[in-house]
Specification:
Length: 293
């Protein structure tokens, strides 16, 4: 990835941070965007910042550039892409990873008992931000005549994800990849959706009362099959450096399948495969994951 330029939208924490740092380890210049900075936190009120991620990118071997952007505001995204264009004359990789919807997800109630404003706000944050970002960033890929768009989601099958607005958001993000793939193929640019398995984000580690160093002490048996954000990042690097990635365009992919094809490992040298674990241990209770979308 040395000499290539990436934009990781929503790179403050979790999967976005993992992707940005692994791109840095591969030598990329990475614009890290989000709303949480050392000067002020986003409404999620978490301590991770875009500056912290950018510093990790640089420490890993790349160049991290933090830019505060609210991806729901078109003017801010336009200004970001104009800056990238002025500084680098194009873009090689766009990772649409804006999410932040976990605190708003209602897992306990069906649609007709949920708060409508909360659900619609979550959907807009998870989907409209991706649309806005692609609207202004994709022309920079076209200027290069090559590249990749990665839409980060949860799940890559038709299985219902357990909450109406959550399911709607994550499924729609997959459709964003399908639509962009169709429109970008004539320009030689690929677009895919990509899902991690059971991701050990900062918030998930806190939920289980562990750290990335002590996560194996968690008592939840499913957590033993989780993966670090670096695993998602290494999947993105593998896709971005695959000269035949256009053959995958329009597909919804998972880290669990890609590690078998590309041979990458997680940060600890393991190769988590949550879809395989689901089929072995969870399908009897929750049903099959379903056919790919």
């Amino acid at each position: 990835m040395r000499g290539r330029v990436a934009l990781v939208a929503g790179g403050t924490r979790g999967g976005g941070r993992g992707v940005a740092v692994e791109l840095g380890a591969a030598g990329a210049t990475v614009y890290v965007t989000g709303r949480s900075t050392r000067g002020g936190r986003s409404p999620l009120d978490r301590p991770e910042t875009i500056e912290g991620t950018a510093e990790r990118v640089t420490a890993a071997g790349g160049l991290g550039i933090p830019v505060r952007v609210d991806h729901a505001v078109p003017a801010e995204v336009r200004a970001l892409t104009e800056r990238i264009d002025a500084e680098h004359g194009g873009l090689d990789l766009l990772v649409n990873g804006v999410w932040g919807g976990d605190p708003s997800t209602d897992w306990a109630h069906p649609l007709w008992e949920q708060d409508l404003d909360t659900g619609l706000r979550m959907f807009r944050n998870a989907v409209e931000t991706h649309v806005v970002t692609s609207r202004f960033a994709v022309p920079l890929l076209i200027a290069r005549g090559r590249g990749l768009v990665v839409e980060v989601t949860d799940g890559n099958t038709a299985r219902y994800r357990g909450s109406f607005f959550y399911d709607l958001a994550k499924s729609t993000v997959i459709r964003l990849a399908v639509a962009q793939a169709a429109e970008l193929r004539p320009h030689g640019i690929a677009a895919v959706a990509l899902t991690p398995g059971f991701l050990r984000s900062e918030a998930v580690l806190e939920h289980f009362g562990v750290t990335e160093q002590t996560w194996r002490t968690a008592t939840d048996p499913h957590f033993a099959h989780s993966e670090s954000p670096a695993y998602l990042g290494r999947a993105v690097v593998a896709l971005a450096t695959d000269p035949d990635v256009l053959a995958r365009s329009g597909r919804a992919l998972s880290t669990g399948e890609l590690h078998r094809e590309y041979g990458f490992t997680d940060a600890d040298g393991t190769r988590p495969d949550f879809p395989a674990y689901w089929a072995e241990a969870l399908e009897g209770e929750f049903g099959p994951l379903g056919d790919p979308l």
